[in-house]
Amino acid sequence: NYPYEGPDLTSVYYHHIPVHFCFTIDYLVAQAQVRSGGKIRFPYSTQKNYAWFDERTYGLRPGEIFGEKGGVLWIEKGVAKPENVMVDWIAARSADRFYLMLMSQAEKAITIQPNLDAQKIGLAAGEIRLYENDRDVPKIFASLPRKGLTIPAKGMITLSMPATPKEMLPTVPPLQKGHVVTDLESWGKLHTFRIRSPFGKDAIFATLIADPVDGAKATLKANIGGREKTMEVANFPYEFSIYPVGIDQEVSFEFAMSGPATKPERSAQVQAPSGK
């Protein structure tokens, strides 16, 4: 409730959270690059002047890991669970390989289980390569050692594992039209946006440009690929998000405003902008 009630559990401004997340990723990727002697590298863009923050942002192009090309950073909770607070990790995925970089902050060598989500990753049988620190020549395994993986003191190991074919950076066509406006008369205008990411998924965002009204309630009933979804908002701002939406998926919904007797109920059928 920070935007409405002020900070409670943290003094971090809510709109600073994405930047602090980027700081963390920047640190982890830089750590992997340094500890590998520059043999792990990911291209980046520099983000500047968002609340005076400055950091490197990754993910739009593949990098290189010990001479293996095509790896795209994959930042998702649960992909790996080393279960040791002294171990940092980042992961990457290419069309046919999965990469895991494990970096230890411990003063002594430690042995851990990476606890990979094999199904989510799409792991396949085949040659597993393990690079230690900045050494070019990997150790070769047919499967991960049952006793776990040993990481040198203040060092890192990098796994390169076979994976089922998967397109990591899909070709995404640009939106032809991303915004429609619907007039709800005395309630104001409803603005509906289709937002396209470079990762093969869209989002629908609908917001009513209007002043707060005591007792007002907004209802959105959407049809998403044949699935019905109903959402309600009983306070300002009157806004809704639908995610994820396939880039070719059409979305229609009914938007309604109701509440105080002083304002008549209004509803409208809305066709969100097409993904084509």
Could you explain how this protein is built, in words?
With 276 residues, the chain is mainly beta. The chain is 10% helix and 43% strand. The strands form five sheets. The chain has an eight-stranded antiparallel beta sheet, covered by helices on one side. β14 and β15 form a beta hairpin. The model has no long low-confidence stretch (mean pLDDT 90).
DSSP strand tally = 20
Number of helices: 3
Strand/helix succession: HHEEEEEEEEHEEEEEEEEEEEE
Radius of gyration: 24 Å
The low-confidence parts are none
Helix content: under 10%
Tell me the structural class: mainly beta
Q: What does the overall shape look like? A: elongated
Strand order of the largest sheet: 1-4-5-6-7-12-9-10
**What's the story with the biggest beta sheet?**
8 strands, antiparallel
Keywords:
43% strand; mainly beta; 20 strands; 8-stranded antiparallel β-sheet; 4-stranded antiparallel β-sheet; 276 residues
Characterize this entry briefly.
With 276 residues, this protein is mainly beta. The chain has helices at 2-5, 17-35, 118-121; strands at 40-41, 44-50, 53-58, 63-65, 68-73, 87-93, 97-104, 110-112, 128-132, 139-141, 149-151, 156-162, 179-183, 189-196, 201-209, 217-224, 227-233, 239-246, 251-258, 266-271.
Topology, element by element:
Layout: H1 2-5, H2 17-35, E1 40-41, E2 44-50, E3 53-58, E4 63-65, E5 68-73, E6 87-93, E7 97-104, E8 110-112, H3 118-121, E9 128-132, E10 139-141, E11 149-151, E12 156-162, E13 179-183, E14 189-196, E15 201-209, E16 217-224, E17 227-233, E18 239-246, E19 251-258, E20 266-271
Antiparallel strand pairs: 1-4, 2-3, 4-5, 5-6, 6-7, 7-12, 8-11, 9-10, 9-12, 13-14, 14-15, 15-18, 16-17, 16-19, 19-20
